[in-house]
Write a structure and sequence with these properties.
The chain has 15 helices and 11 strands. It has about 450 residues and is an alpha/beta fold. The protein has a single domain, classed as Glycosidases (TIM Barrel), CATH 3.20.20. It starts with 12 loop residues before the first strand and ends in a 5-residue tail after the last helix. It binds beta-D-fucopyranose.
Length: about 450
């Protein structure tokens, strides 16, 4: 890679990201059942019905995995804390083994000079809470805040940063309207409620974290560059609606205390009564914004189907193993849009960006190296254009459990053999380590 650490501002953080259910091995250490276990156990939801029971066995290999981050010269590690591991019933008595695990994880980061960036919720909702309606139940706001109090009460004195929720769009829309993620609902009323409750849970958790004295708190949102499939008026309108649902709903609630009209058009009839009363707590200040960015969507209007009356069609550029179009300009556009329209000079982190690619002989990985380099260039350009971007976390450190796609899609800098669980750094790991270490600029 031509770019190196020297091209980025002093103090810019280089790291990698993971999430608990995708790597830990959920069957170990007294974790309770979560909605991903039962979703995966239902035919047709996940490729080969794979689940996170073993995953990368990070639960037992955590020290060696932290060594991989340190040996790449990384500054920071973004991980998540599993709700069902800490509170197997979702509420009530904590699992001492689970708390001990995160305690060791945080100490393990600090011993290696890695700043711990915690995400409180990255999707493993305890089954006991999904039995009560999960994200469709307004009480989820207090449930999440209570969980935050337990886990941050234990590790909050040592973590560098705390994000409340990873990707509310996936928690709400992908899981309750598209039905692709647990709990797999396809219901506009459930989706609208989840779309609001996830914001409410963020706000309630922020309040609790502030009460506990934390001052480096924020949220991680996902964004997709969104383009109309053609210049027909119907496609332009459909793309604007998708942009409102995917890219504006959450940040507008947090930064401005309102929801975009294009999304309210379809969702308002299904929102919980009195939702307006929650907007003040939702829009309290945050200390940073996490941006996850992967691809661009081309949106086409579809006549004769209910709102939002559209579908996503293939774009012209090269695709990753996920079929996601590679479009680095969209990262630049997202970052500059965030600072211009929503958060001003607030610190922004790219908390996820990466790509899936099949195994290659000798883990050559040239496509991924090129992908990282082009997205680093996009970040570099956004900084030059005035965005207060303070760090980049590659998704992901390891090949892992890619949700409904099981173990097939490989996002890692480090290859995992899912028979032996052996880790082998790919060429992209070495290329990024080299870029992080080099003091000469491009
Ligand atoms: C994001 C998720 C992460 C991973 C990547 C590929 O939406 O946050 O867990 O699945 O996509």
């Amino acid at each position: 890679m031509k770019l190196s650490r020297a091209d980025f501002p002093q103090g810019f953080q280089f790291g990698a990201a993971t999430a608990a259910y995708q790597i830990e091995g959920h069957r170990f250490g007294g974790a309770g059942p979560c909605h991903w276990d039962s979703f995966a156990a239902t035919p047709g939801n996940v490729i080969r019905a794979e689940d996170g029971a073993l995953a990368c066995d990070h639960y037992h290999r955590m020290e060696a995995d932290l060594d991989l981050l340190r040996d790449a010269g990384m500054d920071a590690y973004r991980f998540s804390t599993s709700w069902a591991r800490v509170l197997p019933e979702g509420r009530g008595t904590p699992n001492a083994e689970g708390l001990d695990f995160y305690d060791r994880l945080v100490d393990g980061c600090l011993e290696r000079g890695l700043k711990p960036y915690q995400t409180i919720y990255h999707w493993e909702l305890p089954s006991a809470l999904s039995d009560l309606g999960g994200w469709t139940n307004p009480d989820v706001a207090d449930w999440l805040a209570d969980f935050a109090e337990v886990i941050c009460g234990r590790i909050g004195d040592r973590v560098h940063s705390i994000a409340t929720i990873n990707e509310p769009w996936c928690v709400a829309w992908l899981s309750h309207f598209i039905g692709h993620h647990a709990p797999g609902l396809r219901d506009i009323r459930a989706a609208a409620r989840a779309m609001h409750h996830v914001n409410k849970a963020h706000g309630r958790t922020m309040t609790r974290l502030r009460d506990m004295g934390h001052d480096t708190c924020g949220i991680v949102l996902n964004f997709e560059a969104t383009a109309p499939a053609s210049d027909a008026a119907a496609d332009i309108r459909a793309a604007a609606t998708q942009d409102a649902i995917n890219n504006r709903w959450f940040i507008e609630a947090i930064a401005k205390g309102s929801y975009p009209a294009e999304a309210l058009e379809g969702l308002e009839p299904h929102l919980p009564r009195g939702w307006q009363d929650d907007m003040a707590e939702i829009s309290q200040p945050i200390d940073f914004l996490g941006v996850n960015y992967y691809t661009r969507n081309h949106v086409q209007a579809v006549e004769g189907v209910p709102w939002p009356s559209s579908t996503v069609v293939d774009g012209p550029r090269d695709k990753t193993q996920m079929g996601w179009e590679i479009f680095p300009e969209g990262l630049h556009g997202t970052l500059t849009r965030m600072s211009r329209d929503y958060v001003g000079d607030l610190p922004i982190f790219v908390t996820e960006n990466g790509m899936a690619w099949p195994e290659e002989p000798d883990h050559a990985d040239g496509v991924r190296i090129d992908f990282i380099e082009r997205h680093l260039q996009a970040m570099h350009a956004a900084i030059a254009d005035g965005t207060n971007l303070q760090g980049f976390f590659y998704w992901s450190l390891l090949d892992n459990y890619e949700w409904a796609f099981g173990y097939e899609k490989r996002f890692g800098l480090v290859h995992v053999d899912f028979d032996t669980l052996e880790r082998t750094p790919k060429a992209s790991y070495h290329a990024l380590a080299d870029a992080i270490a080099r003091k000469d600029g491009a």
